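My current task is to audit a protein record that another person submitted. Please read both lines and tell me whether the tokens look consistent with the sequence. Do not assume that whoever made the record got everything right. I have pasted the whole thing underneath without changing anything:

===
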Amino acid sequence: MPDADPFSGTGPIRAQHRFDEGALARWMTDNVVGYEGPLQVEQFKGGQSNPTYRLRTPQRDYVLRRKPPGPLLKGAHAVEREARVMAALSSAGFAAPQVFGVCNDEQVLGSSFFVMEMMEGRIFWESGFPGLPVSERAAYMDAMNATLARLHTLDYVDLGLADYGKPGQYVARQVKRWSNQYLADEAAGRDTHMDRLVEWLPEHLPARDETTLTHGDFRADNLVFHPTEPRVLAVLDWELSTLGDPVADFAYHAMMYRLPPSILGGISGLDLAALGLPDEASYVAAYCRRTGRERIADLDYYIVFNMFRFAAILHGIRARVARGTAASDEARAMGDRFVHVAQLAWEQAQKIHHT
């Protein structure tokens, strides 16, 4: 894919995210097997939460992810968790980058970080894969579907991740967590639709409960596809992963059917058949088939929950802009979408008829 998208590609390290590159080179020499300098560091333009860098050497390239500098909310930007889950999944043959080293000593770069494999391939920034021929798009959609379904069928205990989160009551805990985070982070201000959702969501929780490993931000632009085939080579950005409800995780991914192209590259309002894309019902059915489900009850609720959760994340980005700690030049535009997503979430909630 070309680097025309503002989130694509790399550039010079932004002033607020600079660090001692010599210290990194020394750490790489001591901790990454096979590393040989000299080292050249560039910053990826994307990455709203954790600053991400491309490390170039004559032998191979690496990726560095680190916590942002400055004051952080408790529990946020847990790069150590990202490294742990990717290492476990990579060793099990799932599409995740190999992790080469983790550093929790903030004296090295100023914040915790890890170094992982640089996955070469294609990243698509819109869920409808507009850069592909119409005849190929359904296969790429199906590859996304199959990858998430496989994640949800893995045994997290066998992966050594039994303590990676709390089993059970995931959605209830998430509603409480993101509500509290939204209410506590005053730098970005309040919104009437969000305030209503904070009250509505806990009152309408589904009765079902299930636990698997969940990604938390599964969408097209967090996947690296094979250079020429409809095959997912790597799933990236595991910051929000945990033990959670697979249906809620899938609903976040399926939210693309309810969001406009201007938000997360959604496909709502598009002529799906003309674009070679499956409709929502077909996509949900494919996931159900792969995970042994007859159907997904309360899918609409889980869509609302995920819109609310995404709005809370955007609210956090907006707050980081206000505090001057945002990780991207595009963070301001992302934060400005908060009000729109909160409104869409409330509109979805109003469409659900409860008896």
